Amino acid sequence: MKKLVLAASVLAASAATAPAADLPVKAKPIVAAGLDWSGVYIGAHAGYGGGMMDWMSIQPGADFVARGPLAGGQVGINKQLGSFVFGLELDGSWADIKGTGVVSFSGPVFGGSFDARSTSKIDGLVTFAGRAGIAADRWFVFAKGGISAAHERHDFGGTSSTLVGGVVVTQTASMSGSEIRYAPMLGFGAEYALAGSWSVLAEYNYHHFGNAAARLTGTIAGNNRVDEAIHVAKLGVNYRFGGIAVDPSIAPVPAVPATLWTGAYIGAQGGYGWGQTRSPDVLNVLPANDQPHFDTSGWIAGGTIGVNAQSGRFVIGVEGEILATGIKGNYDRSLAAGPAVINATYTSRIDWLALATARAGFVVGDQWMLYGKGGLAIAEEQHSAAALQSVPGISVAIDFAGKAVHTGAVIGAGAEYAFAPNWSVKAEYDYIKMFAQQVQLSGTASGGPFGAASQFGVTASKINQDLHLVKFGVNYHFNSQPVVAARY
């Protein structure tokens, strides 16, 4: 009897465990290993910078582009919490960012000739900034802001030649000086973790040095007030002490099951731009309340390069764009003053336009990303002013032209759609508000008191401009693949 009960117990236990053995076992979810950017690092960088130098105090003034290379090193520290990374960085660069402006006056109305040469050079640049951004996969996309200091040197030289009693009298004057100038700065960039302790980076910085004066001394002396803004693009490499650790203590937020936007991309785009230009009446031929104010418009086409980092549905990125443009416009005015008739024409043309921006947006559905963007815009522009004044028996013709690099702020919004593995299309609107820019115009005048031809220059004190851009483009993403959710 006891054996029978024992056998029944064993059979019952076997029957109870058999269904359990057939149940599926739920596997642990697959979680991609993350990288922890926390720690101290050192590195080196090289790049190129440039911007406008506007001499405002010493007459006849000068407005010119300074540009050149820079190279140096950086040291910093990061802390990562989940997908968020923040830190501090100090960098210093040797620089050779320089430019020269030349203004010449000659002709009978001046009684001789005068040449002025103004030179400015930045030979050192130091920046202390905070960085903050999102880490995803091996990418760290960031924005930065802080203060910068630049060591600058300014030189001025002038030569005049006049005819006195049949003899040419030549006089020269020169002065020079240096200064340390401080400015706020902001920038955007992306860093990519290589094997071991190494990473590479690319970033853009904007230094707004504004309007400040330096004392110049020499055969003459004076205070030189210069208004300036410098744009810098850098490539670099960093070494992290202890390496970039795998699996941070607080795990990053994984991307949602949809198109993965993390990674680098390149693209092409085209569209249309329009806006308004407001210029001072440098010819002094229009009534005081009638300043040149005209519309500009034209095509735009070019390329783009950028990097995104995705955390959940949130995506941030940095993007650089270069666009050739046909944006141009002109102002024509004809007026009569007694027997005199004046015909004046002002023109403006944008040769190229560059944008450096940060983007932030959200993934919508499986294949859409909606985003906003903001940053800096740079435009190389051509400006001209011409007038023909006629009175009975006398005609005076004036023709001036000049070039400037115009800086502005840009904001925009757009939508991007991933239509195939690695490919997406986008539509975007941008608004650009250019900062007021001084421009040096030079040229000739003939007729009347100017004789056969006189050469001289004028300063367009401030030119204001705004732009609206509508763009359509296509991007290729180097590592964009759908996120696949494992199911068990």
UniProtKB/TrEMBL annotation:
Source species, domain of life: Bacteria
First and last residue of the signal peptide: 1-20
InterPro entries: Beta-barrel_OMP, OMP-like, OMP/PagP_B-barrel
Alphabetical keyword list: Cell outer membrane, Membrane, Signal
One GO cellular component term: cell outer membrane
Subcellular location: Cell outer membrane
Major subcellular location class: membrane
Residues of the Outer membrane protein beta-barrel domain: 9-241, 250-478
Family note: Belongs to the Omp25/RopB family.
Name used for this protein in its record: Outer membrane protein beta-barrel domain-containing protein
Source organism: Bradyrhizobium lablabi
